[in-house]
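Renewal narrative, Specific Aim 1. Our central claim is that a sequence can be written position by position from structural information alone. The example that follows is taken directly from our test logs and has not been curated for this report. It begins with the structure tokens describing the chain, in the order in which they were read.
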């Protein structure tokens, strides 16, 4: 009997092609079921060079990559046209809300991951997880009170009660049928129309409202937030490099920084570093625009 496919979804733009590659490669390196992996890449337009970098995952591990150009998806463009736009994250953050609309009909479960992560445990443990009747699985957010309820924990208590579990949306194990039944894009549209969207933290708050008390809570090691070297002793399953310290910086001070560099591969790590430095310099001094 053939093995069940393991579906993983990532959302990113061309600037984050290398971290997306590192997430996928970390997954492949920590499972024997590489040929069962299907990576669903929801992205903005990619250069041919960066697309080929990503396709190297198929050649190395025998998995499958499926590409979804969000700029060619009319339903996504309609959804985000009036949604709040974050300069750093862009409207790509809303793509995961529509995974049930993007993916093939036979996908029953999908594991969503942010691209600032590194997986260090067999991903099939999440693919085969008993959700115990819940719609999703995720890890509680350590800074929930600050993120969801803001100043003095007085804001948004009518939307998100601080006594309820609040999860980080960087890792979400999704029951596709129940996700679809929740009609998340329609909820987002209503929040845009009535102004509620201005009160919440993008899609993470929205997902916590939609799936309040309907998330199976995972061990913290499945989404270890902001890992520092001391956290290495916890034997984390997935590292989530939130905040300013990122493992693709030369001197990041994060947990498993050297491991991350080798997962990304030294060649791509330094090419990505040069790409970011060039981008930063162009912002400070736009060559070709001098008088």
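The sequence written for that structure reads:
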């Amino acid at each position: 009997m053939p093995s069940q496919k393991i579906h993983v979804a990532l959302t990113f733009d061309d600037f984050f092609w290398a971290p997306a590659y590192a997430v996928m490669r970390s997954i492949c390196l920590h499972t024997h079921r590489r040929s069962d992996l299907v990576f669903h890449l929801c992205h903005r337009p990619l250069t041919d060079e960066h697309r080929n970098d990503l396709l190297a995952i198929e050649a190395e591990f025998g998995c499958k990559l499926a590409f979804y150009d969000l700029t060619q998806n009319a339903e996504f463009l309609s959804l985000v046209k009036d949604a709040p736009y974050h300069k750093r994250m862009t409207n790509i953050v809303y793509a995961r809300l529509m995974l049930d609309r993007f993916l093939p009909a036979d996908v029953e479960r999908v594991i969503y991951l942010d691209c600032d992560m590194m997986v260090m445990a067999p991903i099939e443990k999440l693919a085969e997880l008993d959700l115990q009747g819940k719609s999703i699985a995720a890890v509680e957010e350590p800074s929930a009170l600050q993120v969801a309820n803001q100043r003095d924990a007085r804001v948004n208590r009518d939307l998100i009660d601080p006594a309820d579990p609040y999860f980080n949306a960087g890792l979400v194990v999704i029951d596709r049928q129940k996700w679809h039944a929740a009609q998340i894009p329609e909820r987002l549209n209503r929040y845009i129309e009535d102004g509620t969207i201005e009160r919440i933290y993008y899609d993470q708050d929205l997902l916590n409202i939609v799936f309040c008390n309907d998330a199976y809570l995972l061990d913290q090691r499945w989404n270890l937030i902001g890992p520092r070297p001391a956290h290495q002793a916890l034997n984390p399953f997935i590292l989530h490099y939130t905040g300013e310290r990122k493992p693709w910086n030369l001197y990041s001070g994060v947990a498993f920084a050297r491991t991350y560099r080798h997962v990304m591969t030294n060649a791509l790590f330094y090419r990505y570093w040069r790409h970011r430095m060039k981008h930063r310099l162009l912002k400070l001094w736009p060559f070709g625009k001098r008088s």
